[in-house]
Amino acid sequence: QVQLVESGGGLVQAGSSLRLSCAASGRTFSSRAMGWFRQAPGKERELVAVINWSGSSTYYTDSVKGRFTTSRDNAKNAVYLQMNSLKPEDTAIYYCAADSMYLRVVVPTTPNAYAYWGQGTQVTVSS
Q1: pLDDT reported for residue 79
Q2: Could you tell me what percent of the chain has a pLDDT over 70?
Q3: Are 3 and 115 in contact (CB under 8 A)?
Q4: Which of 33, 77, 113, 124 is most buried, taking the most CB atoms under 10 A from its CB?
């Protein structure tokens, strides 16, 4: 079992930065890929970024490439999402999620590949 708690959201102006953190409990965290998803009002949940279990591979959706960076610290059971040059369209609830499988070679990019989810943290970007 993995329990996840996000933090770091807030209200910021366009062009600002935020760093989201996701604290994980459970002994299997370091063996699982971790994803960041977001959901805006009236929209489907979408993948933002993924990092594999070792931190050696990442994936970003096109709209955040070059602005967002995900990283992890397995010794601290934590994963991060650094968000720079924020835009109003980044406004959403952001969730971290843990892969349902261990040591997956290819990072999973669909929500149904993730078995554990945090409660979410709100990010609001004003123009």
Answers
A1: 98
A2: 100
A3: no
A4: 33
Q: How many CB atoms lie within 10 A of CB 94?
A: 23
Per-residue pLDDT tens over the stretch 27-86:
899 999 999 999 999 999 999 999 999 999 999 999 999 999 999 999 999 999 999 999
Closest listed residue to residue 127, CA positions, set 77, 88, 96, 72: 88
Distance in angstroms (rounded) separating the CA atoms of residues 18 and 83: 5
CB 5 within 8 A of CB 118: yes
61 closest CA partner among 77, 83, 30, 76:
83
Averaged pLDDT for residues 4-18: 98
* Beta strand segments in the chain, E: 3-7, 10-13, 18-25, 34-39, 46-51, 58-60, 68-73, 78-83, 92-99, 114-117, 121-126
